[in-house]
Design goal:
The protein has about 220 residues and is of the alpha+beta class. Helices cover about 35% and strands about 35% of the residues. The strands form three sheets. Strands 1-4-9-6-7 form a five-stranded mixed beta sheet, with no helix packed on it. Strands 2, 3, 5, 8 and 10 form a five-stranded mixed beta sheet that branches. Strands 11-12-13 form a three-stranded antiparallel beta sheet, with no helix packed on it. Strand 12 and strand 13 form a beta hairpin. The chain is elongated and about 105 Å long.
């Protein structure tokens, strides 16, 4: 198991910071888990979205825990998922992707983490335009997550369709080979049978062939 910290890009709307979202991609080996953490302050918000792109049944276990180890969100054998939390206390929040249910297949997981630093909404400080920017940025985060999910889902469905087409093609080739083999065997068998029955054979002083019987004079 690895435990590391990825850079969590928070949006400070009062400072008019640009929107930053970075996707990560990891391979989770069989019977292992990969864990990451973020240091949050009270009222900070964090969202984790993920999608399993390759491996096995395309499923992983996911959970997110607070600094005291209490599980705030848990997904079991999910292909895709998203969870959002608002920190109730300062500390280190940990989230893990587990492939411990599998003994053979690696899982490729794409995920991104983003959040919002809490800033008190004082009417004397926060102007209406700044509140609109805050709302717009949150909407852009949701659109970005949906786009990444659609891309991964399209790639997975395309791989499934190509695999199905290959199987149908080779099954058709196999059927054609079997059909021609059966036809060739039937022609050969008929020829051998006709030759065998066409040869004259003496029976009780008569020559009997496949098509006629003649008396010997």
């Amino acid at each position: 198991m690895s435990r590391q910290r990825l850079p969590l890009f928070f949006i400070s709307f009062l400072a008019l910071s640009p929107l930053l979202i970075f996707a990560h991609k990891i391979n989770v080996a069989p019977s292992t888990k990969e864990c990451f953490f973020e240091d949050l302050h009270e009222h900070d918000q964090m969202t984790v979205t993920y999608q399993v792109g390759e491996g096995g049944h395309l499923d992983v276990d996911f959970w997110l825990a607070d600094p005291e180890g209490n599980v705030l969100s848990r997904h079991l054998r999910h292909t895709t998922g998203s969870t959002s939390i608002t920190a109730e206390k300062d500390g280190r929040y940990e989230y893990c992707f587990s492939n411990q249910m599998s003994t053979m297949a690696d899982k490729q997981v794409s995920f991104n983490v983003h959040g919002i630093i809490y800033i008190s909404e004082d009417e004397d400080i926060v102007a209406p335009v700044e509140r609109e920017i805050r709302s717009l940025a949150i909407g852009l985060l949701a659109v970005k997550d949906e786009q990444e999910y659609i891309v991964v889902r399209e790639r997975r469905h395309r791989d499934t369709a190509e695999s199905t087409n290959d199987r149908v093609k080779w099954w058709s080739v196999l059927q054609t080979v079997v059909l021609f083999s059966v036809v060739a065997w039937q022609i050969y068998y008929l020829k051998v049978s006709v030759r065998a029955f066409s040869k004259p054979r003496p029976i009780d002083g008569l020559y009997q062939s496949f098509f006629e019987v003649k008396r010997i004079i």
